[in-house]
Amino acid sequence: MPSVSIVNVTSYTGLELLRLLSQHPQFVVTSVTGRSAVGKRLDEVFPQLSSLLAFNQAATPAVNPKLVIGEEPAQTDLAFVCLPHAAAAEMVAHLLKRGTRVVDLSADFRLYDVAVYEEWYKHVHPAPALIEDAVYGLCERYRERIRKSSLVANPGCHSSTAILGLLPAFAAGIINPDVIIDSKTGISGAGRSPSLKTHYAEVNEDMSAYSLEGHRHLAEIVQELIAGAKDGGHPLSAPPRITFIPHLAPMTRGILATCYADLKPDAQQRMPTTAEIRALYEEYYANEPFVHVVDQPPHTKWTYGSNHCFIYPVVDVRTQRLIVISCLDNLVKGASGQAVQNANLLYGYPETMGLSIVGVNP
Amino acid sequence: MPSVSIVNVTSYTGLELLRLLSQHPQFVVTSVTGRSAVGKRLDEVFPQLSSLLAFNQAATPAVNPKLVIGEEPAQTDLAFVCLPHAAAAEMVAHLLKRGTRVVDLSADFRLYDVAVYEEWYKHVHPAPALIEDAVYGLCERYRERIRKSSLVANPGCHSSTAILGLLPAFAAGIINPDVIIDSKTGISGAGRSPSLKTHYAEVNEDMSAYSLEGHRHLAEIVQELIAGAKDGGHPLSAPPRITFIPHLAPMTRGILATCYADLKPDAQQRMPTTAEIRALYEEYYANEPFVHVVDQPPHTKWTYGSNHCFIYPVVDVRTQRLIVISCLDNLVKGASGQAVQNANLLYGYPETMGLSIVGVNP
Amino acid sequence: MPSVSIVNVTSYTGLELLRLLSQHPQFVVTSVTGRSAVGKRLDEVFPQLSSLLAFNQAATPAVNPKLVIGEEPAQTDLAFVCLPHAAAAEMVAHLLKRGTRVVDLSADFRLYDVAVYEEWYKHVHPAPALIEDAVYGLCERYRERIRKSSLVANPGCHSSTAILGLLPAFAAGIINPDVIIDSKTGISGAGRSPSLKTHYAEVNEDMSAYSLEGHRHLAEIVQELIAGAKDGGHPLSAPPRITFIPHLAPMTRGILATCYADLKPDAQQRMPTTAEIRALYEEYYANEPFVHVVDQPPHTKWTYGSNHCFIYPVVDVRTQRLIVISCLDNLVKGASGQAVQNANLLYGYPETMGLSIVGVNP
Amino acid sequence: MPSVSIVNVTSYTGLELLRLLSQHPQFVVTSVTGRSAVGKRLDEVFPQLSSLLAFNQAATPAVNPKLVIGEEPAQTDLAFVCLPHAAAAEMVAHLLKRGTRVVDLSADFRLYDVAVYEEWYKHVHPAPALIEDAVYGLCERYRERIRKSSLVANPGCHSSTAILGLLPAFAAGIINPDVIIDSKTGISGAGRSPSLKTHYAEVNEDMSAYSLEGHRHLAEIVQELIAGAKDGGHPLSAPPRITFIPHLAPMTRGILATCYADLKPDAQQRMPTTAEIRALYEEYYANEPFVHVVDQPPHTKWTYGSNHCFIYPVVDVRTQRLIVISCLDNLVKGASGQAVQNANLLYGYPETMGLSIVGVNP
């Protein structure tokens, strides 16, 4: 059974990994780190984990709530890195060097072009040589490459939602690459560090847009839609023109992206219909256990706590625009669930292992 | 002091009118109706109104919580009609005939073209002859006409938000009339009748889109943006191509519309900058007491319980798109506050009378 | 593998059973009923269940989202009855007659004294003869009897919370049986039928008390605390004097009961300390997988979606009162999770089977 | 028109004072301080206040959003002090010395006994000599003394709720002074400084109790109930035995206190009925504009943004306990609204001036 580290376990993605891995029949968490809580046990930081104790009669429990948080990760087979960007790359380099496979939840290895990375993240990349070994960890796209990799760059939460929603349309070349993505996220996406922007009385009963000047996830979205179009046999002749505006919604979990694009007529100047597009989407995701094409507008609450993504494509008949609504749980399919799915691939386990939970509803 | 009826006071717009009028120094509510509660006193249906009693020492209190809900409106100088469409038109015809001025909060008199109305609302208009006497009650646009009118068609909540956000751009002719409006509303917009769609456990911690097949407010938006472009000296050569998608957000009040459109280059092929557009917006709304152009993304919570609208125009420099974010309280500037503003105009009072409240925050 | 019916699956407890059983390795749901949705597939009523399909490659999936909702339960080994009281008893009688084991989630078989039942529920009990065969389904108390039973009366949500919080104190005889239980519940406890009391805009951002004239769960609480005191060797000399006031809190899930009682001095007139009482509680629940005595005030959010209950006993040193805070998820340990725990006992499975999930947090 | 300072205006009580005073016809805010924002204009810190500008055509607007935040309060007639305890007392001493009347929203002058203060607040009182000049600012109790005072100690939010709920019962001597107060507060009560305890994702969808070891508001409650009993002609023979447990509820505003006490039989050994107690409560608050005795359990949402308090007394007939439910908006009647009410008294204005708003509902 592979041993696992979670680096910066005191983040929300760290906590979510603990929750998911506690149901996993193969991985065993043996090392956790977190600067602000070094020396504390997991159940001191997250008291609800004490409930795991009763289920840990096995010789090697997946997650032991009595595990003490350390400063540096112990030697393990696999590590999940939940550090902020830059710090993550340094840790990843260190871990790879000692033979640990890594799922990195930061943005450090998501962009193949280091110049693009440095433009968006405003600092010199700490380990550019590793970028070419990294795979963008969207399993629905790259599962074969992930299986052979040692470093998976787990996608961003907004990016996962938008890319999964738009990939079939780009791959089939049915839209102009002129897209608007209006994304709404729950507040856990902002992380576990308190600030006025995440202060309950400020954000409860409130909607607002943010990062109007440009949100970093846009770079991933652009990169992956270009690649998706190419791999689908409809390469773009110019960079796509994408506006991506994230919004903060008064809920803990969930992202809903509403994507808008102009449909392209076919050779006979006919526009595709909703039914044709839905069929195309269903075929694209036919064998995907976690991506579901639905016939009504999906709700983020369908995904609560689960690794599922629901997608609804529909034509706006008045304007011949394609509208795609895509939603998932930002902490699961948008982060830690996707990370476990990647880890399953790294170890040749069934991709769904430990992820069979359905959304908590209502 | 003009006497006032509220028809269908048991709706949320009716309740909000009571709250706002209780602070109004001129109007006196003397008649309230509401089928489901005939014979009950206001404070039996809305117990919080009992708090008004202490403030009703005047000979003619604006709102008396002991008022009994009737079946038919008594003769009054002014009436606010909060009925659903179709029922509203019949009541409006009846009230106008007996000399009552009317602010109609339904959609029945918002559309000047009866054919468009009947296409969207799927029934024969009950009083088409009255349409030409009605004024679309967006005070920022039509205050002179409203002053001379007897019938004001109070705008829809999504419509108000989007139209106020886009008017300056259409009037100045700086964008292509090819617009996407992604609107997010609180749940009070769905009214006071219980249903699974407004059931707490279903919509709490949830985001979803609705009316993907076309929402009725689109018709108003199109009508008013065409008119705004024309009156601004930049008439459209063809109908605008607008996609409007509303979303339900887990909050009680507030609408935030994010509007996207391509900028048009000027004669010198230069694109307008954010600063230029903001100046243009500020000028357009320079003397408006309730519309505020701001220099950061606004929050619906700034508007909670108030009649104010905040607008933030900004250029997406990567794509040369204009993004406009507009927000207001759907029950106030999006309904009952706008209705009081209209009533002030009908009676020649200062437009802000009774509406000076600032948003409740946090 | 035992076949299972869920009667009235369109309720929230029915939906929660589907979610939990979908993770269960033994039970197979083969029949579901629900009057309002007869003829529909499960995934038409609950679209999020479509995500289960990918996991149903087994010959006999635990929950098949394509299952069609019927009017009457088919013959199965086990049935969960989620009907309202009275209707439940009739169904239970019918099911038992044909040899089905039953976990009844209604109140019909919780009270051993039919007169008490009829006083609280205001109707004649439809099947009084079955009462003596029923076991009150609080596993922590009655697991041996449940194992041998065919009819388990699953406890109420408020009752479970309060009884688990107070049992150790009653069993040890350390308090006067003069207790105040102030309980706060999330709104899913009110069920899935829309009403003004559960309408989002009414209950969001609101706290209120209800059932001040007496809530039916009080009868269970009294019955079980008397029994707990007796079985603990400290029988009460008179009925306990208990005030139980439930409150509605603006959240979907969770119950938190704050219980207050006067401590009794021991033979030496010494009052027990917090440390002593905590030790006593820890011993009482030492081997319980789902009940956790903690050393800080627990949060309902620790229990979200899980079958766990957290209990914090503490002495108010100024008044020598015992305060016990107890919390759980009203739909899991307070309803459907407890029901699965009972079903595990009925079939001799490990009590925790299918219930190993930890709370979704944040 | 009296000039006003708000000291530490960047707190939630400071912001709420701005909102309320903007509607006040007499006071003019001329000085605001706030360490973290010195040099900024009010509308830079609170952008929603920019909406006030349109209403500030008067020569002396009540609140000017362009006012610059200073480090020290300028000389004004009146000051509201929103500092934390200890810092408040020093500021109050300074302000009184220069002839400014003060409403202090901190706890520094609420307790008449400096020893009690120092026991609860764990530091030496910075200005004990001023205590005897201070009046506890619960207008319903002390309006005559407040009128003649220069220093008003504005009550705590939990204290106001509980004291208003229990005063009539203590004054009439109908209960044993053996009381349990279970109080539920919205999260704005924790102030505007971010922390994990007020982080949205932590407290949304969560209930918990806090300050189990003793909350400071208990000292005020005890002091005022003793005084209320004495002034009502039913002095207590011993200190009351009060347990007060506050809880955090997932809402922004509102406090609901549920109070429990044993009724005392009268001379004929007869227990008072609900009707008698309600009559007694109604008489006690007969002339109060802000306190309303109601005949059903009140909702915090009735009070949202208003200065009203709703109280529901009822006998639990099974146990002969009195239950009193009391609720208000913690930032208005529980803080800044009460402060304005006090300021009105200091200046001989009608007590309700500027406070006539009814709760925002839904």
From TrEMBL, chains A, B, C, D:
- Give residue ranges for domain Semialdehyde dehydrogenase NAD-binding: 3-149
Q: Report the active site residues.
A: C157
GO BP: L-arginine biosynthetic process
Q: Which UniProt keywords apply?
A: Amino-acid biosynthesis, Arginine biosynthesis, Cytoplasm, NADP, Oxidoreductase
Cellular component terms (Gene Ontology): cytoplasm
Q: Which residues form the signal peptide?
A: none
Its Enzyme Commission number(s) read 1.2.1.38
Chief subcellular location: cytoplasm
Cite a single Pfam family from the UniProt record: Semialdhyde_dh
The entry lists its GO molecular-function terms as:
N-acetyl-gamma-glutamyl-phosphate reductase activity; NAD binding; NADP+ binding
Top EC group: oxidoreductase
Named in its record, the pathway it takes part in is: Amino-acid biosynthesis; L-arginine biosynthesis; N(2)-acetyl-L-ornithine from L-glutamate: step 3/4
The record's listing under InterPro entries reads: AGPR (IPR050085), AGPR_dimerisation_dom (IPR058924), AGPR_type-1 (IPR000706), NAD(P)-bd_dom_sf (IPR036291), Semialdehyde_DH_NAD-bd (IPR000534)
* Location in or out of the cell: Cytoplasm
**What is this enzyme's catalytic activity, as reactions?**
N-acetyl-L-glutamate 5-semialdehyde + phosphate + NADP(+) = N-acetyl-L-glutamyl 5-phosphate + NADPH + H(+)
Indicate whether Chloroplast appears among the record's keywords: no
Function according to Swiss-Prot or TrEMBL: Catalyzes the NADPH-dependent reduction of N-acetyl-5-glutamyl phosphate to yield N-acetyl-L-glutamate 5-semialdehyde.
What NCBIfam families does the entry give?
argC
Q: State the family it belongs to.
A: Belongs to the NAGSA dehydrogenase family. Type 1 subfamily.
> What name does the UniProt record give this protein?
N-acetyl-gamma-glutamyl-phosphate reductase
Q: Which organism is this entry from? A: Ktedonosporobacter rubrisoli
Taxonomic lineage per UniProt?
A: Bacteria, Bacillati, Chloroflexota, Ktedonobacteria, Ktedonobacterales
Q: Which gene encodes it?
A: argC
